[in-house]
Amino acid sequence: MEYKVNNPADRFLVDKVLSGDTKAFRSIMKNTEGLVAQIVFKMIANKEDRKDIAQDIYLKVFQKLGNFRFQAKLSTWIAQIAYHTCLNYLEKRKLLLPDPGSGQSHEEILEKLISQPDIFNNETEILFYKKELSGILGTEIDKLPPVYKTLISLYHHEELNYTEIAEITQLPEGTVKSYLFRARKTLRDNLLLTYKKDAL
Amino acid sequence: MRKEHLNDIEIQQYVFQKEDCDSGLISHMHSCETCRSQAEHYTFLFKEFSQQEKPVFDFDLAGIVMEQLPQSEVAREKTASRFLVFSVIFSVSALLYFGGNQLLNLFTTIKPLSIGLIIISVLGLFGFLSADMCRQYRARVKALNF
Ligand SMILES: [Zn+2]
Question: Is A8-92 CATH 3.40.50.300?
Answer without folding.
Answer: no
